[in-house]
């Protein structure tokens, strides 16, 4: 399973990247806003740090302008994955990019039907939004499972990039189902290391160690 980090916070990406935890990065207009940085500048910095795919999102809603925006974003670095929304125009742009051999991440996917279209349009990645579905009383993890089954039924090569990940359980559920990639905020990835029994066990070991009066070096 590949780990993408869902942020445009360069320091947070660097911390995880130094540990070898980063296979790619996803950004979106809201994350660019949060970073307070210029999209081209911050994306260039991220692409120089991370060797895997870095998703940068178009903001036009018509295919023609999406294509020109996507080409501008692709100029930033060879590891850019152009991110387009799962609309008919987005699929048109996706097909155009894919025909030129460019990496495309089709985002804002909320149904299995949409995921089929993304695969047919040649997307490298489809991003189903698990958390936002859960927020709306749908089952985000069930969608990942459905897309996995459908893609496997037909040998679709598009990678399932589980997005809008809110919890450690989302990540382990996605891993169990066989999502190809998860993209999560840095805090959620770091929270994977936490376990109350680890904390409790460590506390006890340190207490007992203190009683031995020994030192290791
Ligand atoms: C995906 O690529 C999106 O950037 C992201 O996962 C959206 O997550 P959110 O629903 O927490 O905003």
Descriptive tags:
alpha/beta; 217 residues; 11 helices; binds erythose-4-phosphate
Description:
Helices cover 53% and strands 17% of the residues. The protein starts with a strand and ends in a 5-residue tail after the last helix. With 217 residues, the chain is of the alpha/beta class. Helix 1 runs parallel beside helix 3 (39-49) and helix 8 (140-154) runs parallel beside helix 9 (168-177). The protein is globular. It has helices at 10-18, 29-35, 39-49, 63-74, 88-99, 112-120, 130-135, 140-154, 168-177, 186-191, 196-212; strands at residues 2-6, 24-26, 54-57, 80-85, 104-109, 125-128, 159-162, 181-184. Helix 9 links the parallel strand 7 (159-162) and strand 8 (181-184). The chain is built from 11 helices and 8 strands. The protein has an 8-stranded parallel beta barrel, surrounded by 6 helices. Erythose-4-phosphate binds at residues 6, 26, 28, 107, 127, 129, 131-132, 163-164, 183.
């Amino acid at each position: 399973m590949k780990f993408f980090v869902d942020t445009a916070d360069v320091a947070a990406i660097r911390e995880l990247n130094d540990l070898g935890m980063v296979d790619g990065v996803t950004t979106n207009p809201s994350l660019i806003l949060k970073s307070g940085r210029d999209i081209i500048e911050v994306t260039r910095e991220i692409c120089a740090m991370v060797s895997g795919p870095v998703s940068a999102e178009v903001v036009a809603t018509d295919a023609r302008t999406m294509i020109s925006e996507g080409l501008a974003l692709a100029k930033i670095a060879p590891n850019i994955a152009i991110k387009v929304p799962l609309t008919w125009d987005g699929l048109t742009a996706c097909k155009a990019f894919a025909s030129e051999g460019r990496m495309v991440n089709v985002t804002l996917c909320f149904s299995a039907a949409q995921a089929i279209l993304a695969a047919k349009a040649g997307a490298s990645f489809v991003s189903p939004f698990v958390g936002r579905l859960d927020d709306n009383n749908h089952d985000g993890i069930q969608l990942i499972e459905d897309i996995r089954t459908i893609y496997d039924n037909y040998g679709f090569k598009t990678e399932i990039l589980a997005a809008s990940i809110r919890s450690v359980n989302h990540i382990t559920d996605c891993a169990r189902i066989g999502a190809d990639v998860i993209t999560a905020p840095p805090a959620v990835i770091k929270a994977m290391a936490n376990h109350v029994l680890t904390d409790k066990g460590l506390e006890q070991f340190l207490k007992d160690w203190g009683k031995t009066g020994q030192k290791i070096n």
